[in-house]
Amino acid sequence: MAINTQFERSPDGFNSDNGDALKQAGLGSTRLLRFQVQDEVEQQQLQLLLQLLLQLLLPQQLPPGLPVQAVFAHQRHLAARIRVFLEFLTAHCAKVLV
Fold first, then answer.
1. What is the pLDDT of residue 98?
2. 13 phi, psi to nearest 5 deg
3. What gap in Å lies between CA 74 and CA 69, rounded to an integer?
4. Which residue numbers in the chain have pLDDT < 50?
5. For the CA atoms of the chain, what is the radius of gyration?
6. Which of 26, 32, 40, 79 fits 45 for a cystine, CB–CB 3.0-4.6 Å?
7. What is the pLDDT of residue 1?
8. Are the beta carbons of 75 and 29 closer than 8 angstroms?
9. Measured distance CA(72)–CA(78) in Å, rounded
10. What is the DSSP letter of 17?
11. Across the chain, which distance is largest between two alpha carbons, in Å?
């Protein structure tokens, strides 16, 4: 299946209407279903951002089978944008899950 890999430069970075294209290009984070990224997760090409974050910060409140995952291309250093997003998720999830 061919994937449209056109990206637009914007003030916020790159935009695409195709999460698979962003995933394959490693251009940030996207929201996909687990089955869409399972192979890459098993090969350690992608990490499940939201699940990892919740396991580290709120392990006692992590519901089984959490249906939402935030995924990013594995890199040694996270971009500041991703760090800010993680901080937002941490604060939001702490309010929702407590």
1. 47
2. 125, -130
3. 15
4. 1-3, 7, 98
5. 14
6. 40
7. 44
8. no
9. 9
10. S
11. 43
Of 23, 25, 7, which Cα lies nearest the Cα of 15? 7
* Nearby residues of 97 by Cβ (< 8 Å), 6 or more positions away: 54, 58, 61, 62, 63
Q: Where are the domains of the chain?
A: 8-97
Q: What Å distances lie between residue 36 and 42, 46, 63, CA to CA? A: 12, 11, 21
pLDDT of residue 10: 62
Residue 17, amino acid: D
What are the residues whose beta carbons fall under 8 Å from the beta carbon of 36, sequence distance 6 or more? Answer: 19, 20, 23
CB 40 within 8 A of CB 23: yes
What is the reported pLDDT for 63? 54
Q: pTM to 2 decimals?
A: 0.37
